[in-house]
Design a protein that fits this description.
This protein has 127 residues and is mostly helical. The chain has a domain of 86 residues: Up-down Bundle (de novo design (two linked rop proteins)). It contains 5 helices and no strands. α2 runs antiparallel to α3 and α3 runs antiparallel to α4.
């Protein structure tokens, strides 16, 4: 499996997470001024952290436990992003359809990270 992918940017889950983080960045400009400091900052940080942790996990593939630990962080950050999206949607800052679509994108990220964890042995690079 891993022989066909040279960099973390080639992972479909990374591409989806990066696209979602950029959508959040675009949406963050539409949030009310009062929420820009707190909610916006949290959404931006957690969504970007998903991508950063995927990149770190990719680089830690020599060690299964380190690889899986980073993927656990991906799951945690993706779930946190879902919480902030839910707040933004319920508070009326995001259109309900947009909020649901973004939430669904992170559900896919969570499923992909879980699958990478389950198949960790196939991704670990022999020393």
């Amino acid at each position: 499996m891993s022989n066909f992918i040279a960099t973390h940017q080639e992972l479909l889950v990374y591409q989806l997470a990066f696209e979602a983080a950029m959508q959040i960045f675009d949406l963050s400009h539409t949030l009310p001024e009062a929420e820009r400091q707190l909610l916006t900052e949290q959404m931006l940080r957690s969504s970007r952290s998903v991508c950063a942790n995927l990149a770190e996990a990719w680089q830690k593939r020599r060690y299964k436990k380190a690889f899986v630990a980073k993927l656990n962080e991906v799951e945690a950050e993706a779930a946190e992003t879902q919480v902030w999206l839910e707040f933004a949607t319920i508070c009326g800052y995001l259109d309900a359809e947009v909020g649901q679509e973004m939430f669904h994108q992170y559900r896919i990220v969570l499923a992909a990270a879980s699958r990478l964890i389950q198949q960790a042995d196939a991704w670990v690079v022999p020393s």
